[in-house]
Amino acid sequence: MARILAIDYGTKRTGIAITDELQIIASGLTTVNTKEIFSFLKTYTSKERVELFLVGEPKQMDNTASESEVFISKFLDKLEKQFPNIPVKRVDERFTSKMAFQTMIDSGLKKNQRKNKALVDEISATLILQSYLYSK
Predict the structure, then answer these.
(1) In whole angstroms, what separates CA 90 from the centre of its chain?
(2) pTM to 2 decimals?
């Protein structure tokens, strides 16, 4: 089997999470400067088999698209063109940033460590991936 790669897209930073080859465990992989996301994905997919991209879908409480969806739509168009053989699915990402921050508190990270927004993005991507795995 191949891996599933989750993307928590942001205009500055993008969190990345990945499954193991059996698609059982979701693990945070890294956070990438968004300007370098396609370079990162090309390198990663040349070394590892990826069968699916999961991309977070930010929504408002009333289920309408969030303001950041405009940027994500452009990213999705480019992602599908550059990786036509890897399907893309969207996953509701409401509350993942808050849950990521709470995870950091629960794991005992100190206050200055919790200010690391890159780590929040990586944990958010992991939560997106974990929710998808639970729903399968």
Answers:
(1) 10
(2) 0.84
- Is the pLDDT assigned to residue 63 strictly greater than 70? no
Q: If you ran DSSP here, which 8-state letter would residue 64 be given? A: P
Q: Which residues contact 30 (CB under 8 A, 6 or more apart)?
A: 16, 40, 122
Task: Please say if the pLDDT value at position 97 is more than 80.
Answer: no
The 3-8 sheet, strands edge to edge: 26-33, 13-19, 3-8, 50-57, 88-92
H or E element that contains 31 = strand 26-33
CB 129 within 8 A of CB 21: no
| Strand extents, DSSP E, 1-136 | 3-8, 13-19, 26-33, 50-57, 88-92
Give the pLDDT band of residue 61 (cuts 50, 70, 90): low
Structure tokens belonging to residue 126: 């992991």
**Tokens read off for 114:** 């919790």
Residue 42 to residue 95: CA distance in whole angstroms: 29
- Please compute the mean of the pLDDT values over residues 88-117 and round it to a whole number: 71
